[in-house]
Design brief:
alpha/beta, Nucleotidyltransferase, domain 5, five-stranded mixed sheet, three-stranded antiparallel sheet, 8 helices
């Protein structure tokens, strides 16, 4: 984990965030100049209470918060350090109510903080690095009341939110909310995140039919409708395992997530999946560094 002092002492937290952002070469966030200095209190000579820096070249003042998800937040950075650590080390997530209790802040502030951390965990450019190799594609439904009653689930109306996943064997994952599970929607979702040289593996949902002609590795299916779950290396167990973690987190930790904000929770669970081979310290550092260059003005994103 990150140093415990950073979660309880504000100066230690500020210095941690500065070190992770700039290393040993602090630079002005406005002009990029390295001719900068820490501002000090005129009477005590100690560091400014707002932890300000000043640039010799552009003469502007700034802090490590500028240009990050915690810019303009009045919450202490020690609370941000603790929340980043918890969000990066809890496989099934951490509730805002728990952050509220541990940090002794309001629920509104804890929710504000966690929403921005999830935004920091969003992929930089998911279209730039498409999934390769054998890619399992699957869909699930999240939230709401039971999807159907009776023996025939196919085609029943639902108020649950459909979520699509594409995951590389032993690799990365991409999940996002989709409007429905029609052929047009699911095929478009696959084209968006999967490289044309990949091999596609799905269950026998009719919506996936015909996608194989577009991919060098073809399209292979396993017949869930007849209770066939594995045939050689043809299966969607990896994708289903990722959905199991997502649902355990939503049901066990968050209890309910609205469709409006579900995509942010997907970012968090995808971040944890994609960096699962890192230890907790490395993953926390990666999360803090991912906060740079991202601002969440409270318009939904």
């Amino acid at each position: 984990m990150i140093h415990p002092l950073a979660c309880s002492n504000e100066l230690a937290a500020v210095e941690l965030f500065e070190q992770l952002r700039w290393g040993n070469n602090p630079a002005c966030v406005h002009c990029g100049s390295v001719s900068v200095y820490k501002m000090a209190d005129a009477k005590t000579g100690e560091r400014n209470k707002r932890f300000l820096w000043r640039c010799h070249d552009c003469k502007k003042q700034y802090t490590v918060r500028i240009g990050t998800v915690y810019e303009e937040s009045r919450l202490d950075l020690r609370h941000w350090a603790y929340a980043f650590w918890r969000a990066s080390t809890s496989k099934k997530g951490v509730a805002a109510l728990e952050i509220m209790r541990h940090c002794q802040i309001s629920y509104k502030s804890a929710l504000f903080l966690m929403n921005r951390i999830r935004f920091a965990m969003a992929p930089e450019n998911p279209e730039a690095e498409k999934l390769t190799g054998t890619v399992e594609c699957d869909e699930t439904y999240v939230g709401g009341k039971p999807r159907f009653r009776g023996s025939n689930p196919r085609g029943r109306a639902t108020k649950k939110t459909p979520v699509f996943a594409a995951v590389e064997r032993h690799g990365r994952i991409r999940r996002h909310v989709v409007a429905d599970v029609s052929g047009k929607t699911l095929k478009a979702a696959i084209r968006e995140v999967v490289d044309k040289q990949a091999r596609i593996v799905t269950d026998d949902l009719p919506s996936y039919r015909g996608i194989g002609a577009e991919y060098a590795g073809g399209h292979h299916t396993v017949a869930h409708s007849t209770r066939e779950y594995v045939r050689g290396d043809i299966h969607t167990n990896t994708a289903e395992s990722s959905f199991a973690l997502l649902k355990r987190g939503i049901m066990g930790i968050y209890h309910n997530v609205s469709k409006e904000y579900l995509h942010r929770y997907l970012w968090q669970f995808d971040f944890m999946w994609n960096l699962r081979k890192m230890n907790d310290r490395e993953r926390t550092i990666a999360a803090i560094r991912s906060a740079e260059g991202k601002r969440l003005m409270y318009r939904r994103a």
